[in-house]
């Protein structure tokens, strides 16, 4: 039941529809369960496209497209909404109106360009071998951990029913999210960036809308992915540095 709940919410994999309360109850398992599935699929798509097309750029772009499709573009939508809210001038109410506006503004387009650039820069450095697999696997887990830790640790804004529901369920379970993250912090640099980006997105969320929400969690998951991936491929864990696949 728990796996069905988080599969239906965090991916496009068909599964039994669940209430938001049930999804939030089991969401603390999403980093290890959904992250592992996503990491394996990411690498299979990347490896297959490199073998078939023999082009790093094509493989990177197709894997980027697969990553967002697998997520159902839900986290990306949060990034676009937060981008509009961040860039608009005015008080909190003005930023909230920009957040809820269904039209994508200049802020959303700008953050999309930044995210896309970071993703392409990160993906073209991913290796074909075991290091590439470990990099994609770890960032899929860590990015989801960051988004859920934001919801768990940062009080939600009153206007976000999703934020309030997830915060209520996760605020006592954040140690379980951290425990899932530790095995995937493959180097000191990645560990430091994991902490710093979580603090950064917490500050952005608090200053922009006054707390956490589903959109700020989506922004956190989306942007932390390429940042951590760049760190993973540039500073891999030393005890994996001599492992290679053909």
Key features?
74% helix, 246 residues, mainly alpha, 0% strand, globular, single chain, disordered C terminus
Would you kindly provide a brief summary of this structure?
With 246 residues, the chain is mainly α.
Task: Tell me what the structure shows.
With 246 residues, the protein is mainly alpha-helical. The protein has one domain (2-11, 18-236). Helices cover 74% and strands 0% of the residues.
Biggest β-sheet strands, sense, barrel: none
What is the helix tally?
Answer: 12
**Quaternary status:** single chain
Low-confidence stretches: 241-246
Number of domains: 1
Q: Shape from CA axes?
A: globular
Structural class: mainly alpha
Rounded mean pLDDT score = 87
Layout of strands and helices, then pairs:
Blueprint: H1 2-10, H2 20-26, H3 30-53, H4 56-71, H5 74-87, H6 92-100, H7 106-123, H8 130-153, H9 161-170, H10 174-181, H11 188-209, H12 214-234
